[in-house]
Specification:
single chain, Amino acid/polyamine transporter I
Length: 551
Amino acid sequence: MSTTNAGSRRSFKREAGIIGLLYASLGGIIGSGWLKGPLNAAVRAGPLSMFSWLIGGVAILMLAMVYAELATLFPRGGAVVHFPRLSHGSLLARIWSWILFLAYVTIAPAEVVATLNYLDVFLRHLAIHWIPPFILHTASGSNVLTAAGMVIAIMLLAVFTALNLLGIKWVMRISNTAGWWKLIVPLLTALTLLYVGHHWQNFRLHSADSRREIEGIFTSLSSAGVIFSFLGFRQAVELAGESANPKRNIPIAVIGSVVIGLIIYLLLQAGFIAAINPHTLAKYGWEKITSGGYLARFGGAPLAAVAQGLGLVWLTYVLYADAVISPGGTGFIYSTTSARVISAMGSDGFIHRIFSRLSRNGVPWVAGILAFLVGIVFLLPFPSWSQLVGYISSVTVLSYGIGPIVLMSLRKIMPENQHPRPYRLPAAHIFAPITFIISNLMIYWSGLKTLLILLAVLASIFILFLAWRLLSGATLRQMAWRSAWWVLPYLLGLLILDAIGPAHLVGGSGLIPFPLDTLVVAGFSLAIFYLAVRCCVSVEELEAYIETQEI
């Protein structure tokens, strides 16, 4: 690929080993989600919240296996940006690059907000009453950043960006060091709560409204941070271009991180349930569990509150320390991969090519600065962790949900006898459509309000792009619309389904009740899946594109 300046001629350094990639993905999974997710899921689904983590983990594992094949087939930095271009042309790739951009740059701000949330609770735990609530506004219960909190959040984002300038070798060293801590502390917490709490009767204490608990299993996937927690697997996919041995390392890192994360989250949820005082549950129930006791005072740090309620003071302080390390480590690694995604957009011409420029250390430094600036913007309209998580879960699943379509499209136009797969997903013709259905259900369960925000942002960007291209003299044919037109009925269909879904579940009109709505979404997803695969580019178009790329 020809270039015109020294910055763009530099290439990524292949210095990421198997442990580094595994910990990068695991570091993305074990972030703020484990500190807040068990309480949020229990409030919605009670003891049935165990099923939320199981369903979410299995769903993301299926998606991870799809990307294990794609990432090893095309091991490039910011690889996920290139996949839609290979299967459906430049227009779809451009649309999906915007979705990916929105998905990635919001993670680091969410982790920073979670860190500051725990810091604020820790100060109140120490009873430092002479210090005003300068980090969070907590009076309304919304945990929104104050002006001072916003400044601190921006400073933390700046630190993440600065550390990334050191290069991928140092990023992996930092990730590996934090990785051991992020493995040991959650496991220690879960096992300690199970051993000391052991209120096994809590698993039989259900809410009076059983339907609410069952529906809570699914709403927890997005609103409680379940899916948000597991989506960290993608770090290894985005760092594929910097792996020393992507054929071996990527599948192990991607699949292994999800399996380990699932085990940890199931143990944590079980430990949280077993550690709650049964008298508190009998009085308030799962839905209002934060109305009494330590959880009422320190609900922003639920695991620490439960540990203190059991008299485990040492564990309380370990959790407060981890509240900086776990979310901070996750925010750091997402700053790394966000820059790779933006750099890939620049190299494919989806944004200005200056963003693909690399430093002497092989770091996309211009892209890193852009990720930092956009991250600040997302602290403004979504200044609390819970608000950010609902949005991020929806946009990220949408961005990665196209993977099964790309996989089957490439199976169609890139036969294996000509393009061998280092890792081959078994039974892909069954696996891929099921994974696409699950992805759309997770988007659907995020709710009408979240989807409206997401589609409004995408529509605004697309209208501006379309106007610019038409004014520049381009035609629709030149924009590869024949391979991308299915996106319009796909996104509009998801919006309509949310609009007519159950009011208490997704905020719709209630025209389609639960669980019939699940079957309708599944049928719609299958129709879109096969339509999208049918619309893939021709073999000739794909070969012409590959000839111009370093693939």
